[in-house]
Design a protein that fits this description.
By secondary structure, the protein is mainly beta. It is 10% helix and 22% strand.
């Protein structure tokens, strides 16, 4: 999702612990002044194609072993979902900034099966994650999802050229059309909200510069950031560039590229698409969310305003049904762009009536 489409309803149950697309990205203020407003655990041992871990044990089923390895045994027992129920919160705000909020327990857990991305390049012939757990809430104004999935390595830095991020996305369509594949089409535009682990790190810890990847590097002279070639300087982004009036050297930042934002205000991007290769950052960035790393993998909350802010954005109303799809990226397996694990089908999204 940013390149793919998206089963029996889940049941409400006590939460026992951690329970899971899209791509797209102004100025150093995180986009505020940019033009942009501000496994299924099944019959095979799951694992990442590049980092498989075989766990063998006499008398133990492969699925059970896999579940133990990922700490998401509950997914094994849940039926494959074909529908997602977005439960009305009763007036409480959807806790998009708190994936651990007890409010998420009010929504039934649904197991969404993911598969390979074998339609467009770059392809992913085998899903890196085979199933995610999904819960959905709405408060009449915002709709949010909590996604949980197992992964054995956290990937939240993209400073080096061989680093890729973990990510997750939700795709909204005007209807659950079985013929809708991947990124929608001109007759049926889709809206996507994508959470990115490296953006989450920027939000939590501040802009992650090259010094994070190479902490022992030193700089003796770095024109035009120092006037005296004999004075060593610690080059930090963006402070050193701003002090030297040299932000023009930060090409993406200077060009107001939303993907190059330095002061990140949200780890979630909203995108619009009408087919392969058309996904673009939405003019109005009003999506929100937050993700946390647990001993079981990622737990991420993300969502958007139910009423669309931009042309062709999918709007949602309580009491109606829409289409929804999901996808995740595993950075440790070099997942990027279309190389992701999307849901196998477009699920039906039932938005519960908002009762007073």
């Amino acid at each position: 999702m940013t390149d793919e489409t998206v089963g029996e309803k889940g049941t409400r149950e006590p939460e026992t612990g951690a329970t899971p697309i899209v791509e797209g990205d102004g100025k150093g203020d995180g986009g505020a002044s940019s033009g942009v407003t501000v496994k299924e655990l099944g019959t095979e041992v799951p694992g990442h194609p590049n980092r498989r871990k075989a766990i063998l044990g006499a008398g133990v089923g492969v699925a059970a072993v896999a579940a133990g390895a990922y700490g998401l045994s509950r997914l094994v027992n849940e039926p494959e979902a074909t529908e997602i129920d977005a439960v009305y919160t009763g007036g409480d705000e959807v806790p998009l900034q708190d994936p651990d909020s007890n409010l998420w327990r009010d929504a039934p857990s649904a197991r969404v099966v993911l598969g390979p991305q074998d339609v467009t390049t770059p392809k992913l012939p085998e899903a890196a994650v085979s199933a995610i757990s999904v819960r959905a809430l709405h408060d009449g104004g915002m709709i949010g999802f909590r996604l949980e999935w197992g992964v054995d390595e956290e990937s939240n830095l993209t400073i080096k050229t061989d680093q890729f991020r973990d990510g997750a996305a939700v795709l909204f369509a005007s209807e659950a059309n079985a013929g809708l594949r991947m990124m929608g089409n001109p007759a049926q535009p889709v809206t996507i909200v994508q959470w990115k682990a490296d953006w989450q790190r920027d939000v939590d810890k501040g802009f992650q510069d090259i010094t994070v990847a190479f902490p022992n590097a030193s700089t003796d002279f770095y024109p035009p950031l120092v006037k005296d070639a004999h004075d060593a300087v610690d080059v930090t982004v963006p402070d050193a560039y701003m002090q030297a009036n040299a932000t023009y050297r930060l090409a993406g930042y200077a060009a107001d590229n939303f993907q190059s934002a330095i002061y990140r205000v949200s780890p979630v991007e909203k995108l619009l698409a009408q087919g392969f290769g058309t996904s673009a950052t939405a003019p109005t960035q009003d999506a929100s969310g937050s993700g946390i790393w647990t001993d079981r993998g990622w737990r991420v909350a993300l969502g958007k305003n139910m009423k669309g802010s931009d042309p062709n954005e999918v709007s949602l109303e309580p009491g109606k049904t829409y289409g929804v799809a999901f996808a995740v990226w595993v950075g440790a397996d070099d997942n990027v762009g279309a190389r992701k694990s999307p849901s196998k089908i477009v699920l039906k999204l039932n938005v519960e009536v908002a009762q007073s």
